[in-house]
Amino acid sequence: MSPSHHLYVLDDRTYQGKINMLVHVVRQKYGKSSILVDHFYPEPKITFKASSFCSGKDHSFVEAGAFSYTRRGIQRHLSPDIFRPLEDRYSNFNGRELLVKANNNAPFHGLKKLESGAFIPDSGIDVSVVNALSETLNFTWRVETPRDGKWGGPLPDGTVSGMIGEIARREGHFAICEITITGLRETVVDFSSPYYFESLIIVTLAPPEKNRAFAIFSPFTMQVWLCIAVSTLLIGPVLRLETIVMKSYMEERNGDEKFDYSTNNFSFNAFRSLVVQSNLLQAKYWPHRFIFIFWYLFCFYISALYSGTLTAVLVTPTFEKPIDYLTDIPEAVKSQGYSLGVIGDSAFEELFKSAKEGIYEEIWTLFNHKERSKSFFSYPDQGFDQLVKGKFIFVNSQMGSKIRAIRKGLNKFHFSRQTFYPQGYGIACNSGSPFRMKFNDM
To answer: Which one of 129, 272, 303, 369 is least enclosed by Cβ atoms within 10 Å?
Structure first.
């Protein structure tokens, strides 16, 4: 038998401790097969397993079919169950090598570049997923990056970019690299069941500490300060007017006025009370005393609130208002000079691009569409490089952003309180891929 022939070695079976089938060989040549049998003891039906065999390489057994024994001898053909269900046929790839498309995208799919320019898997969630699949389904794999370096998807001109495009054109067996399952992408590729779920988050530089040059005014808002100023200015004239009324009423029963009840004196003593100094004004009339009681209470509460809040402000550093919600982005871009970025040709860009109304549509108009390279990046690392340069907002996946922030210094970045757009990541397979269901079963 020449070396070019394919051998299929079948397992031995025993019957009551005796060899039932010593050896069975299926010889395949010119597209035809035959069964050779030696030393056979009768049994109603024998099921055997076969595997491809190459000299110097390991082989494994897979179920191939069954044949029957009769008094006339062995039927030298396989029964119809050799045509196994398609899902069973891909339970074992028999060491076949699959081509996987991925980007260098830690913590999901880290790649290591060799001197030859090729990439090998390094570490990450997706690498662990593929390794588990390859071990279970018995295949090997190698990885290639997409030519345009993008995640990709269908474009308006009818082409398909990135990893999705190369899988759609069957330039690889499947792609796995934090790929969001979307309805648009499912028009050109088939996705496995999602293996990871997360949401998007807004990343900015950590807000700077507020300037304390005007910290003495920070305990109250501008509206409160305005109310205090108006109350202080009005208390003098109000007391003076009340004095005039009382003097006209009490003038016949009282002699010369011994106290200075001018507007200036009232205003000055009201201010003294506000800044926690003694009051030198004597209240002769009971309306004065009534008004002064409420004024003293007002001054006490204002003084207590101010001193307590000021102490807290000086002890605890305060920071500028961070960007915590999607609704904060338009104001930050329009009023504070921020720029906005996201991964280009991705599900993240498509989220804003396809919006017809609401906050997503409003945010889409804030990207730099004239110079796309300033708002739409090929890799998340480019977005983080832009973040450290200044006022920049980067919309990205939650876990990937936090891992990159840890590498660069977690305290340098701020993550929004709001997360949005829950999404699932799946394995993108060729349309009609026969082994996609096996991936789902894993």
So the answer is: 369
